[in-house]
């Protein structure tokens, strides 16, 4: 398709806001994706990052027999390189899966010094709509690599004063490569828009899965938490705090694995200390709630508190401090929450060790991996993926736990 046609296809596409469905509109789900920041022009963002405007693309081309059939601007069916890894033996382990994913990324991440532009992509169906942009399924023409293309209008970004936030997001996310973190392969811009080339998370938003299932079974919650721990260990080792961990910012990959996305609030803080306040109230840790006065610094341990809130929400279906704004703040400041009786004692214990007011006393990521609840549900197997892909390799012992 010619670039002009592609542009026209873009204009024609209407995106149904997938966040608007009835599941989401119920109850108190008024959560926003965050906002803020000081002004830096989007033009300068793109110009100053010319060196970063290079995408690391796969050498691998999709097998034509499996590749998506393109109808007009719609990719009707796609096969990703990593799908080859789907037929796995029953005794496949997390370690194996991890190694394999690393190998896959080693293949995928062959750097090519390339300037990207819209004409290089075939645009497929809309995947979703965020506050400042729309996301489309896309295919890079020369390699057949399937990705998600996030399109944001510069004018809207300027209006929302989120240019600095976007620049930070790009800088941080393009330096991350982990199976539980959405990859940012590159970015480019034209006169009006900024395009982010993202890893395609085939099963969409975790938030929607949670709303649909109301709450997750303990085995599933535990495996998601274990994956969050793996991602956070990686981030914290690189001195990155995410600061906005919540189901809305987590996507699900084709194998049922979770992938943290949305690094708009994240910071790279090598000195380990930050003073700014931001984030969504329900997930806000007490030390961030107290504001920026005096020596009120905070560390990457903010993500541990949010992980506690997330664990609770996975298991209960709603966040522990959900209430009016004033009451939520009050409850967070006191660490005032109750866990319903259907939650197992082990899960309850982990939540208790994460939702600790004193950041220094929160359980460490390494200790979460050894926690009985995690060990019980994640003992060296890859069951979350297996179950998500139809339960083919699912063991019977933990089926109803
Ligand atoms: P965002 O603007 O990042 O909040 O994205 C808006 C919506 O697009 C999300 O809620 C997802 O439904 C979808 N989306 C964003 N990024 C991806 C991705 N990498 N893979 C699949 N869907 C995505």
UniProtKB/TrEMBL annotation:
There is a cross-link at residue 246 (Glycyl lysine isopeptide (Lys-Gly) (interchain with G-Cter in SUMO2)). Residues 121-374 form the Protein kinase domain. ATP binds at residues 131, 150, 199-201, 248-249, 262. GO terms for biological process: attachment of spindle microtubules to kinetochore; homologous chromosome segregation; meiotic spindle checkpoint signaling; regulation of cytokinesis; regulation of mitotic cell cycle spindle assembly checkpoint; regulation of organelle assembly; response to mitotic cell cycle spindle assembly checkpoint signaling; sister chromatid segregation. InterPro entries: Aur-like, Kinase-like_dom_sf, Prot_kinase_dom, Protein_kinase_ATP_BS, Ser/Thr_kinase_AS. It catalyses: L-threonyl-[protein] + ATP = O-phospho-L-threonyl-[protein] + ADP + H(+); L-seryl-[protein] + ATP = O-phospho-L-seryl-[protein] + ADP + H(+). Its EC number is 2.7.11.1. One of its GO terms (molecular function) is ATP binding. Keywords: ATP-binding, Kinase, Nucleotide-binding, Serine/threonine-protein kinase, Transferase. One of its GO terms (cellular component) is spindle midzone. Belongs to the protein kinase superfamily. Ser/Thr protein kinase family. Aurora subfamily. This is Aurora kinase.
């Amino acid at each position: 398709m010619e670039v002009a046609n592609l542009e026209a296809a873009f204009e024609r596409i209407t995106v149904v806001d997938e966040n608007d469905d009835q599941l989401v509109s119920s109850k108190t789900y008024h959560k926003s994706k965050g906002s803020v920041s000081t002004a830096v022009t989007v033009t300068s963002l793109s110009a100053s990052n010319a060196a970063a405007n290079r995408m690391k693309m796969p050498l691998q081309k999709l097998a034509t027999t499996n590749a998506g059939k393109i109808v007009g601007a719609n990719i009707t069916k796609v096969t990703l390189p990593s799908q080859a890894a789907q037929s796995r033996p029953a005794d496949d382990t997390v370690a194996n899966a991890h190694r394999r994913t690393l190998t896959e990324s080693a293949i995928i991440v062959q750097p090519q010094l390339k300037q990207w532009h819209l004409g290089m992509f075939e645009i497929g169906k809309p995947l979703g709509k965020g506050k400042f942009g729309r996301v489309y399924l896309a295919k890079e023409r020369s390699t057949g690599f399937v990705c998600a293309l996030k399109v944001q209008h510069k004018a809207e970004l300027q209006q929302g004063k989120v240019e600095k936030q976007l620049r930070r997001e790009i800088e941080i996310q393009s330096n991350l490569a982990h199976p539980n973190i959405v990859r940012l392969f590159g970015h480019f811009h034209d006169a009006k828009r900024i395009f982010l080339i993202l890893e395609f998370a085939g099963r969409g938003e975790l938030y929607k899965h949670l709303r649909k299932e109301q709450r997750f079974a303990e085995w599933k919650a535990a495996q998601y938490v274990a994956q969050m721990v793996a991602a956070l260990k990686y981030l914290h080792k690189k001195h990155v705090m995410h600061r906005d961990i919540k189901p809305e910012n987590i996507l699900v990959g084709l194998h049922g694995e979770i992938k943290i996305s949305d690094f708009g609030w994240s910071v790279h803080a090598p000195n380990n200390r930050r003073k700014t306040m931001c984030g969504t109230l329900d997930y806000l840790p007490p030390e961030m709630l107290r504001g920026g006065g005096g020596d009120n610094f905070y560390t990457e341990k903010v993500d541990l508190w949010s992980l506690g809130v997330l664990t609770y929400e996975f298991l209960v279906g709603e966040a522990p401090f959900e209430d009016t704004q004033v009451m939520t703040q009050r409850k967070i400041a006191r660490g005032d929450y109750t866990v319903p009786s259907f939650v197992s004692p082990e899960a309850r214990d982990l939540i208790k060790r994460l939702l600790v007011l004193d950041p220094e006393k929160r359980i460490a990521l390494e200790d979460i991996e050894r926690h009985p609840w995690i060990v019980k549900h994640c003992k060296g197997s890859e069951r979350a993926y297996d179950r998500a892909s139809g339960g083919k390799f699912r063991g019977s012992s933990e089926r109803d736990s």
